[in-house]
Amino acid sequence: MIELDSEKRDIMQAQDSLRRRNNKRTDLTQNGTKIPEKKEKEPEFVHRESLLTILMEESLHIKAIYHIFVAILQIIQGKSIFHRLNVAIASVVYGFGDIKRAFKIWLFELSLALLFYPGLRIYAAIRKLITNNSRACQVWAAIGLLSLIAMEGILIGATCWDLAEKHLAVGSSVAVTCEMFRFAMKICAVTVDCIPRCHGNGTSLPSFQQYGYFLFAPTLLYRDSYPRTKKIRWGIVLFHFSEVAAVIFYNCFLWERFILPYWSDYGKKPQVEAGTVVRGMFACVLPGLISFLCGFYCLLHAWHNAFAEIMTFGDRRFYEDWWTKSRYSNYYRAWNLVVSSWLRDYIFRPIAPYAGRPVAYVVVFFVSSVAHEIILALSFGFFYPVLFLQFGVMGVLLLPLTASAGRRFPSIFNLLMWLSFFIGTGMLWSLYPMEYFARKNCPPSKMDSFFVPKSWSCPEIILKPNWTFENPFDLEHY
């Protein structure tokens, strides 16, 4: 208990020091001018807990909201068990089906990631032997670059080919494709950090132990060392993994209670009324947003904190208070700091000085949108770029639209941002199931393709005959 208290005290002291530094930056004199001071570079990784962990410890209000979600899960679960005992279990088993094949694909990805380390050592050793021959160094650098591209290509290409050749269950496919991109980004991070060392900047290459730790640490930025906690709190690990399992079941309940009743028969009849489709979309708005919030909590809080505890990784800052933002630029940065920091360091910053910040922003959004779309396409078994249009097109357009107005009217634009979350998640939870069940229920056609949406042609969406609108101001009607 004494060790835990001292560790918690160290974390709080580090957070307080960071807050004091941030406050010093904006200190003003009495005449309103900024006090000139020497800039002190803040440490990138420090001991600190995740924001929700701090909020739930310090605020009973946040803790109550957490309890509300748990209570909703228990009520849904109780209602479901009352009807049939195997509710949601079938969806979990189906969603994570063929786990053996998924594990083989993951082992292939891990093997390539581990193989990168001896390749890096070989490159550095040969580069040291030919360091006095500039022509040979140029040729060897080109060979090293081509080898890196080939390894990344095999890692991504072979995984995508395998999943496209034979469809894997949705949950298993999401897991292996996310791991594919995670390993690819970690290899890129190590390469950027270690190439100057290979070219003789006086710093030694990381040991295999350091590289292996980085492969499983919850960060995509490589450093030789990170802040480490003193011991593993296995109770915390078990608690967070139980939260991950609960969220998986939570989403399966939402799927069975809100998606299947509206969309499981989609495509069995040649025609469907537009009103039925609209009602189904509105019915999916609330469960879609709940799934969105649960997905955030599951991956960026529970899962990352569980692995951070196992790896004794001290910096638990995986996200910021994105729910309070009024500008989309701030939201995108705060939503997922693990990925956004990688995109910032390895895509945005190298491109911005040469092509400009707007072009760099577009490239970042394009790369991120394509990665998300690959995950969804391989998981569902079809290409339907709804998320790409929402994230890669609308997301880019909303950046300048909310840049100044969101700063001037934060409350209004925070409300509008949440409204867009409701609409966007409702569309995702409607359009993807419509396409999924249209491909299952509609009869085969010569026009069927991985890239052509089936739901556009089957079933036919028609307006109800004699469609009329009621006048809400007609008092005689009442």
Automatic annotation (TrEMBL):
GO terms for cellular component: endoplasmic reticulum membrane. Coiled coil: none annotated. Keywords: Acyltransferase, Endoplasmic reticulum, Membrane, Transferase, Transmembrane, Transmembrane helix. The active site is at 372. The chain crosses the membrane at residues 105-126, 138-158, 236-260, 280-300, 359-376, 382-401, 413-432. The keyword Membrane applies. One of its GO terms (molecular function) is O-acyltransferase activity. It is a multi-pass membrane protein. It is found in: Endoplasmic reticulum membrane. Signal peptide: none annotated. Its main location: endoplasmic reticulum. GO terms for biological process: cholesterol metabolic process. Belongs to the membrane-bound acyltransferase family. Sterol o-acyltransferase subfamily. This is O-acyltransferase. It comes from Leptosia nina.
